[in-house]
Design brief:
The protein is an alpha+beta fold. About 15% of the residues lie in helices and about 35% in strands. It has 2 domains: about 120 residues, PH-domain like (Roll); about 80 residues, Roll (Ubiquitin-like (UB roll)). The two termini are about 30 Å apart.
Amino acid sequence: MNNVGAINTIRAYNPKDILLLFHFDQETLSICLNFMKIEIIIPLNQLISFKIASSMLICFRLLPNFQKKYFDLSSIRPTEVSKGSTTFNIDQVRSMTLTPSKGVQLEKLQILEAGINRLGFEKYGITNNMTFKQACQWFYITCYLPQETRALSFPENESLYHFIVYLKGRFKIPITRLKYRSRKGDICLLLDDKDWEYAKNSAIKTQNFVRPNNLKTGHSFF
């Protein structure tokens, strides 16, 4: 698993040490660890990309602070637990690379990729792209919410769809419309990826971050 600023590796000497499950009916991925005693469930809309590499590696990237749930599978009935009660805290993980066990066929991995691509990307009109070893610049955004002002950072090269999914998960609020303030001071709607690119291009760049001028969502300014 790739972490921010470091690489953490979990080695499995038994096929049941680490297990990746795709629940197509629930539109989630599950990572089961510690001999199937811990399950981490991730909704597909938290994926930025998912690819099977030519070497049969399973590679996927995740939203910052992606949504997830931890379950204890050691009892008869799975029980949701806090991340602190497990030894597997993946809060800072942004990408994962998994090596299939021996005997896994490429055709099965391709079916997995096709299913996730259909339910997690094509369903929402999102292109499932992954570029390896690419430097990523981040936005630093000040968010003006109804009750508070918050700051967040977000990868510059991600889509408007993933940005909205991230906002909903981060602030737990409905988003009916999204606006930003251009360099000229105009309030502009963010309706599609063309608007999103224009907003990013009109941002004020400082050091390693991109600082857009005021954005707003619903009745709140960003």
